[in-house]
Amino acid sequence: MNNIKRKLITIILTAFLLGGSALAQHHSVASVGGSFAFENLDLGAVAEVFKDSEDLAGFEEKLNDSESGINNLDLDENGEVDYLRVEENVEGETHVVVLQSVLGENEFQDVATIAVEKEVNNYNFQIQGTPTLYGANYYVVPRDKNFSAWRLINWMYRPTYRPYRSSFGWRVYPKLWRVRRPVPVNVYRTRTAKFTGRRNFTPSPSARVKTVRKVRYNPKTSKLVKKKKVVKKNGKTTVKKGKKKTVKTKKGKKTKTKTKLKNNKNNK
Questions:
Q1: Distance between CA 171 and CA 265 in Å, rounded?
Q2: To which H or E segment does residue 160 belong?
Q3: Which helix (H) or strand (E) holds 5?
Q4: Beta partners for 89?
Q5: What is the pTM of this model?
């Protein structure tokens, strides 16, 4: 009887350890995007909206819809959610759709890129978070590779297709755009659960679209973006901001302030 109990205990412990290992691996992939942007623009939810859109104009509209609340970014910390405009670049059979935060006149910050490439009888798809915001090698990819039902992809590969360019920018917004304040992370997660709960997409540490480098475009970065990082400890999520340090300059007694963020290798 004792031997049977020992075997049962051994089996249970082994299963527990294997399950914990698998969970840790999944968490390590998701935590690659452990950043402020990751907690305020869930790329899994963005992928769901892309999948259900008919064209890129409709995708941009849904992305900024105040009711769905997918976009909760305030990169310049002005107390208002940033408008996300959509720009597309095409080279051959590869499309790269860029999501940019509009922060000011001639001030734009790339947030993520959506890449689609056409294969012989199918397509490849991925979303990559901008490394300075989401960390290195953070991708979101589909679990299922059947793209035939995606109306937006079929629309992008029409014979007479022209790349999409948003007509909106600083102080030029669509009629449906509403200025609003960002919500806390827990409210944002509850609001986007209807998208992320579908589980059609999953985080990945590696790219799926191999021809994305053939598409050339000029990435946009803005000095207005505040560098900060989300830190998770004991189940609680907090935002860690840069630490100010005063450094004396050589000219006179003037000083300048630099912002450093500890334990954030991506911002070096």
A1: 35
A2: none
A3: helix 2-30
A4: 96
A5: 0.74
